[in-house]
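LAB NOTEBOOK - FOLDING QUEUE
OPERATOR: T.R.
BATCH SIZE: 2
PURPOSE: Compare the predicted structure-token outputs for two unrelated chains run back to back under identical settings.
PRIORITY: normal
REVIEWER: second-year student, initials M.K.

ITEM 1
FIELD SEQUENCE / FIELD STRUCTURE:
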Amino acid sequence: MDAGALVFDVFGTVVDWRAGVAREAARLLGPDVDAAAFADAWRARYQPSMEEVRSGRRPFVPLDALHRESLPAALAEVGGGPVADDVAGELVLAWHRLDPWPDSVPGLARLRRRHLLAPLSNGGVRLQVDLARHGGLPWDTVLGAEVVGRYKPDPEVYDSAPRFLALPPSRVCLVAAHVDDLAAARERGLRTAYVHRPAEFGGDPVPPVTDPAADLSVGSLEELADALGC
């Protein structure tokens, strides 16, 4: 695969959102709230909140704002009551402090030897910068939803990567752990690499081991580096 650049889904692909959110929830909410169930309940509101923007029913706002709006309902679902504004703010910032999967940083470091690297995430620019600084993610630049004011799978998000990186779509590869994300990228002419992350949702459900439609299917970013000769 002749890819000049690799762009990455981040939540679930590069970082472990569930463990990170649960860790911060346990710290901030205490033992009376099931922290893992809360992380799942909050994540379940991720796509519906973005759909309000994608549908045109509301203007674009960064993901932090959507997370803040969906927080009360997620808390209520797991029996948590209202929280003070400062606690709510810290919970939203939990998404800025997610740890990379163990293979992410070494894999990215190897991939960067031969490819431009950037996130292509629904997370905002500051969120991506904070994740990079927190976890040592070696991005060359930050791309994604907030850069174009659209949320994936809007075609404009995928189209923006080759445009900003000055490459044809066929030389840009989206790396993701989600087959729907990869399918949307292929529709725009990007190459695709699937990463199997069996623990993303705590093992239930377990995502498919491969994406037969992807150019590559791997079990880690280090395996991806192997496959690309890095």
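ITEM 2
FIELD SEQUENCE / FIELD STRUCTURE:
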Amino acid sequence: MNPTVTAGPDTFITGTTHSPMDRPLTLVILGAGARGAAYADLAARRPDAARVVAVAEPREQVRDTFAAEHHIAPEYRFEHWRDLLARPRLADVAVIALPDADHVAAAVALADLGYQLLLEKPMATNEADCEAIAAATRRNGTALALTHVMRYTPYTAKLKQLLAEGTIGDIVSLQHLEPIGYYHYAHSFVRGNWRREDESSALLLAKSCHDIDWITDVVGGRVARVSSFGSLTHFRPETAPDGATDRCVTCPLQDTCAYSATTLYREGLRNGGTKQYFTRIMSEGELTEQAVTAALTDGSYGRCVYHCDNDVVDHQVVNLEFHGGVTASFTLTAFTPLENRHTKIFGTQGQLTGDGRHIEVYDFRTETRTIHDTSLDGSSAAEGHAGGDDAMFNAYLDALHSGRPELIVSGIDASLVGHRVVFAAERARLAGAVVEL
């Protein structure tokens, strides 16, 4: 039997300049939902490098289940992350997987207490709060990493290597698609926590700050101008099919509707796979027929997608012009299968086409195609973001545990770049204007 975990030693690491450690890093998880639980599970795979010693989670059942799984002592189980502020520092690292609106308060307060930070994206819901987090990390010398997992995937590493080797010459333009997936969008952005801007943030920030960050990283330059267009067109009351009711369990269309909650969550319960990830969220981790039926009957995830209180866009395009003339276009849309992102990069000597796993290089000079298989598929959170979750988390652990801060490639300065572009794109969309950065 594993022993109950208590908090770490009196002396904790500070910043990114520490020497290699002879003990595991200690972690406190703020928010034991899907993302917080995923990071805790990754830590459990490396007990020599990391131990979860505390948790803050408002849902009692979720908190107790999480704490039992990770052997956390009762005195280190907190209802609210602010409970940590009245205590001496409990761990080396705070993993912030809270609702987006809570990121700034938690990150600033915990950085000031000396915690190192692993911060779930987005950094914060507005530019001023992002800058406040940056200021807090700088004044405290905090080792912060954003969970921009796309930067860490084997696919991205290979793609950037090919570009650096001049395989397609100089980049002229880039085209990138994020296919959110119809049932993922319905779960998270119509019924779920990110359905309303006033309760979370704009879709571009909540879902695709990853992609804007990735584009700026791949191109490697600074964005000069941004334009954007998008709206909520489909998931509205006026587009509901005739006969649709407010909840799927009472709807005569539940067996034929593409967005049926009963179909999605019961299929996840019975057949597992990617859909079980979403079923687990809607039933708060209890994978039983009774729990799923109760959530469908009374919970937010059982509502008709045409009769929710959602207001975030269901499709958007962003156009970028970089200093030096490189252009990029980005599309995010709800109306796709749940599949990998698709990218084309157009260079002076060739074209690179990628799907999150395979990279095809077409050489203008030889008129040949070369395909590189990076061996990992599945870009969704349920699938570990094509190895990005593991690689990002392990890079952060190794950066701190082994004294190698260069392993953090999604630090505060790099991550601010993409976030600033996202906020500029939203200003452009709302104003119908081209915004200069």
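REVIEWER COMMENT (ITEM 2): The CA atoms of residues 7 and 65 lie 18 Å apart.
FOLLOW-UP: none requested
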